[in-house]
Design a protein that fits this description.
Layout lengths: L1 E6 L4 H12 L4 E8 L3 H11 L3 E4 L2 H11 L5 E3 H9 L6 E4 L7 H9 L3 E4 L2 H17 L4 E3 L2 H9 L8 E8 L17 H4 L9 H9 L1 H14 L6 E5 L5 E7 L4 E5 L5 H9 L30 H12 L3 H17 L7 H12 L8 H18 L1
Parallel strand pairs: 1-2, 1-5, 2-3, 3-4, 5-6, 6-7, 8-9
Antiparallel strand pairs: 8-10, 10-11
Helix pairs in contact: 2-3, 4-5, 5-6, 6-10, 6-13, 9-13, 10-12, 12-13, 12-14, 13-14, 13-15
């Protein structure tokens, strides 16, 4: 029986994770349910899963949660509460699915205290990949990807040697604007950008998918997870979202992992790793697959992908600046403060302004995040 804490239990990944856990009560137990501020849904989850405690990152929302829960479970509040929660002895596995930079410290703390981490928060490795992976290697910790692309790669390289890998090929749906002319991106609305053709996700990751920044962040994440240089990590557009990623080996062979676009499948794989257990999720019907297409992304239209490669090649704190600028720009777009087409412009300007520190400490990364956010907020 694995005792699980879900950082971001009320988000899209958190909700899917709870669905998986509910299917296997003999394998998993919900120990703690930390969230940012969605107290209403959190209280519903407490009633259904009866955890040992909950966490609420937003201090004012934590007060509301205490009132609503009326002492039925302890409420851990703020950043310090989250760090305490993931350190507890009755936690075996932490699902890290908080959105953005907020997931960094709790994820590091979970690893430091010996927890297995199933990572859905790609920004953690984007901003602090060197620190995180050094911790994983030196302390012999277990870090498992939940992203469908990285889960696919993990499955494809099982039993293979790193030196036999020629390249990783990440697939991208292309988002809602795959066939939209670049000039028309000036006029897209928030509603337009949130209409992802294949996946149901939270607002921030859906906008990232629309700009292809999501895929850029995944390139950085793959670099750290699989210890391969940027030139060995490629992105192809695959509109059907059936092939989740591929690995080419030095002999020319290619392995691909296929499945319906359902995040519960990679979540279950991470929770049961290295085993597989039967599930009732939808299966692929190959007789109904009319076509599987692949082509190169348009870096002129989707400049965010190229900016991610640029930040990765620069190294140091550059990816942290990239991520901070993107988070502010996306939030500003969602609040109707800037046009969609300005998101890559602001990120490019932030990278041009930033002076990277090549071997950063955690404090360097936190300062880069704070300063970049302030700078881009001012521009917005």
């Amino acid at each position: 029986m694995k005792n699980i804490a879900i950082l971001g239990s009320t988000g899209s990944i958190g909700r899917s994770c709870l669905e998986v856990i509910a299917n296997f009560p003999e394998l998993f137990r919900v120990a703690y349910l930390p969230t940012n501020n969605n107290v209403d849904l959190l209280c519903q989850q407490v009633k259904e899963f009866q955890p040992q405690g909950v966490g609420v990152l937003d201090e004012s929302a934590a007060g509301v949660a205490r009132t609503m829960l009326n002492g039925s479970v302890p409420v851990f509040s703020g950043e310090s509460g989250f760090l305490d929660l993931v350190s507890r002895e009755d936690v075996d596995l932490v699902v890290s699915s908080l959105v953005g930079f907020a997931g960094l410290k709790p994820t590091m703390k979970a690893l430091e205290t010996g927890k297995t981490v199933a990572l859905a928060n790609k920004e953690v490795l984007v901003v602090a990949g060197e620190l995180i992976m050094s911790l994983v290697r030196e302390e012999n910790r277990t870090l498992l990807p939940i992203d469908s692309e990285h889960s696919a790669i993990l499955q494809c390289i099982a039993g293979e040697r790193t030196e036999s890998i020629a390249r990783l090929i990440l697939t991208a749906s292309g988002g809602p604007f795959l066939k939209t002319e670049k000039a028309a991106l000036d006029n897209v609305t928030v509603g337009d950008a949130l209409q992802h053709p294949n996946w149901k996700m939270g607002n921030k990751i859906t906008i990232d998918s629309a700009t292809l920044m999501n895929k850029g962040l995944e390139v950085v994440e793959a670099h750290w997870l699989f210890d391969l240089p940027p030139e060995k990590i490629e992105v192809v557009i695959h509109p059907q979202s059936i092939v989740h990623s591929m690995v080419e080996f030095v002999d020319g062979s290619v392995k691909a992992q296929l499945g319906v676009p359902d995040m519960k499948i990679p979540i279950q794989y991470a929770l049961t790793y290295p085993d597989r257990v039967p599930s009732r999720y939808e299966r692929l019907d190959f007789s109904r697959l009319c076509e599987l297409t692949f082509f190169k992304p348009d870096l002129n239209k989707f400049a965010c992908l190229g900016l991610a490669y640029e930040a990765l090649n620069t190294g140091g704190t550059a990816p942290a600046a990239l991520n901070a600028a993107n988070e502010v720009a996306v939030d500003s777009f969602l609040r109707n403060r800037i046009k969609f087409s300005l998101i890559p412009t602001l990120i490019e300007r932030a990278l041009a302004t930033h002076r990277p520190i090549l071997r950063p400490t955690l404090e360097d990364i936190i300062r880069t995040d704070r300063e970049t956010r302030a700078l881009v907020t001012g521009w917005c």
